[in-house]
Amino acid sequence: MKLEFNKKKVISTALIFLIGFIIISNINFNQEKIKLPGLYISEQETEKGKIITVSAPDELNYENVLGYTELSKEVSKEKIHFYRLVNGEKQEIEIEKYDKNNNGLIDYIEWNVPHLSEQTYELIIEISKAEHLDSNRNLISDIYDEVKEQDNIWSELINDKEYIRITFEKKLTAKNDITIYPRIIEGNPKIKVYEVDGDELIAEFTSINSNQYNKVYLTNLISESQDIFDLKIVGGTIELDHIIDPTQLFFEDWEAGNFNNWDNSVWEIVTDRAYGGSGNSTKCPEDYSTCEMNLTASADTSSAATINVSFWYNDDDCDGAPAPDAIWYWKNSTGSWNNIGDIDAGTLACSLGDDNWCFHSAVSSEAQYKHAGFAVRFWVGVDNNENYWVDNINVSITAADDDVPIFSNYKDNNASLEDEGTAWFNVTVESTNGTVLLEIDDGGGSKNNYTAINLTANVYNVSVSMTSGGTYDYVWHSWGNGSQHNYNISNTQYYTVNSSSSCNVGSGNWEITCSDNCIWTDDFTVPANITITGSGTLTWNANMTMNATVPWEIYKEDGCEMVINPGGSIR
Questions:
Q1: What three-state secondary structure class fits 168?
Q2: Given CA atoms 185, 190, 194, 199 in this order, what sign does their dihedral have?
C-alpha cells in the first residue's frame, strides 16, 4: 500500500541525554499526531550520545521525512554532531540546531530523511576535547581519543613550548584539580596551567613522574569557574595517556568560620594567615603543647580506585625538635588511625622556608582506605613561639570501574559456505562503550580484526569474506562503558567453511582427484563411471557399489594407488 501525503511527515525521537532516552514515533498531519504505519525505531545509548535507527517497508515510499530530536541536556552549538552511518562509515549530515528557550544552548535539532527505508544515525555530543597546539596555540591535531582514558594508548609527542588544550565536561573551580598520566621522552619538563588563551599562571606541575598519575590543584584560578585550560610543556618533551579531573568528596577552606565538620581541640579559625592571602585558615597557636582535629563528616571512598588527600600548610619557627611538630593520619576500614607521615619542618620542610605556604598530598589505592567512613586527622605539637596553619584540605578520588562488557547469544552462519563466501557473525554485548571488534583466524596463522556494526539494542554484527575451506577460531573484544572502559574478551568460538572434495560422490560421472587421499568408511553407491587422476592413495574401508542398471568403468592414472582393506570392496 502506498500512502500519499500533502503535508510534511514528521518523525520525532525525544531523548533524555546520558540518563536514558524516550523514543516517540509519530507524524504531524494537519496538526494531529497520527501513528505512522509500518515505522520501526530502535535506539542504543552510547558514551557520547545515541544511535538511532529508523526504518519502514520500501513499498510505503516515505520520502522527505522530517526527523527531530529534543535534548533534555542542553549543550553549546559546537558540541553537537550528527552522522548517517553507511556501511560502517560516518557521513556527517546537515542539521538545524535550535535554542527553544533562548538561553544560548541547543535543546532541539532537525534533519531531513530523503527516503525512509532503513536509516541509521549517530548523535554525538562532545563532552570533552583534548587538542595539541603549537607554541602560538594554533591547532596541530586532536588527541582526545588518546587521552580520554588510561589504556596505554599514548598521544603524539608534545614538545617544549607546545600546549595541550583540554575541555572538561563540567566547569572546574579553585577547589578542583587536574590529573595527568604522562611519560617523559626528553628533558626535565614542567607543565604550566593557564586559562584558555590566558597568560596568568594558575598552577604548575613542577616535578613530573613518568607512568603514574600526577596531580595539581587549580588554587589560583582567576575566573569563578572554567572548563577549558591550556597546559604548556616547558623544558622537555612528553607523551600523555590520560587527563582527568577526579571526583571531589570533601573540601575545607574554613570560610564558613566553624568546625562543624570536625572534632576539634584547640585549633582556631583565624584570618591572620590564609592560603591565597585572604579569607580564613585554621591555626595551632603558640603556647599550646598539642592541637588535634579529625574529620567527622566522613567521606565515602568505597567506590574509589585511588584516594588523594591534599592540603596547604604554613609554619612559623617550627623546627621538628625534640619531636615531630605535626603528623597527619587516615582512618582505615577498622576505624583505626594510620600515621601517614610527619608534616613539620624537621621532615617535610617547606621549600620556601618559614612563613610561606607549601603544598602536600598523598595518594593511595590500598583497600583499607576504601570504605564509607574515611576521614583524616591532624595532630600538631608546638613549642613556645611556634605556630602552625593548615588550609584548603581536599579529599578526592578517581572512581573504580567494575563495568566489564559481557558477551552472549553468539550467532553465525557456520558450515553454510563451500570453499568461499561471506560469513556473518552476531553477538549481544552488555555494558559496552560501543566499540566491539571481531578477531578471526585468517587460515594462515595470523589474526584479523574487524569493527562490528551496531544493529539493534546491544546486538553487533560483522561480515567477513572467506576465501578457503577450513575451521577458523574467533573471539569478540570490547571495552566497558564505565569511567575506565575496562577491556574484556569472549570465549573462543569456531567457524567452519566446507571444502568441496572429490571424495564426495556426485550425481553423474565421478571425477576423483587422487591427491585428496580419500578414505571411505561408510558404504555408498556410485551412479556412473569413475575417472581417477593425479597421484596419491585411495582407501576403501567400506563397500562401494556401482549402479548395476548401467554399464560402468573405472579410469585410473598410474600415479594413484588403490587400497581395499578388510570390510571394503568395489562391486
A1: strand
A2: negative
What Å distances lie between residue 59 and 36, 121, 287, 422, CA to CA?
14, 22, 92, 28
DSSP SS3 for 368: helix
Q: How many other CB atoms are there within 10 angstroms of residue 408's CB atom?
A: 10
At residue 345, what are phi and psi to the nearest 5 degrees?
-65, -20
Burial of 307 (0-12, 13-18, 19+ CB in 10 A): buried
The C-alpha cell 617547606 sits at 350
CA distance to 285, 388, 446, per residue, from 269 (Å): 10, 12, 68
Position 548, amino acid? A
- Nearest Cα neighbor of 291 from 390, 357, 395 is 390
Q: Torsion over CA of 42, 45, 46 and 48, rounded to 10 degrees?
A: 110
pLDDT in tens, 339-393: 998 876 555 656 666 778 887 888 888 999 999 999 999 998 877 778 889 998 9
- Edge to edge, the sheet with strand 536-540 lists 519-520, 536-540, 560-564
Phi, psi of 514 (to 5 degrees): -65, -25
The residue length of the chain stands at: 571
Q: Report d(CA 328, CA 337) in Å as an integer.
A: 9
φ, ψ of residue 155 to 5 degrees: the values are -70, 170
**Cβ burial 436-457 (10 Å sphere, 16+ → b, else e):** bbbbbbeeeeeeeebebbbbee
Residues 6 or more apart in contact with residue 504 via CB below 8 angstroms: none
The cell 529508523 sits on which residue? Answer: 54
Q: pLDDT by residue (tens digit) across 222-243?
A: 777 788 899 999 999 999 988 8
Torsion angle in degrees (nearest 10) through CA of 180, 484, 474, 436: -100
First to last CA, the chain: 63
Q: What CA–CA distance (Å, rounded) separates 43 from 266? A: 60
CA distances from 69 to 16, 35, 65, 123, 504 (A): 10, 17, 13, 9, 58
Residue 515, phi then psi, degrees to nearest 5: -70, -10
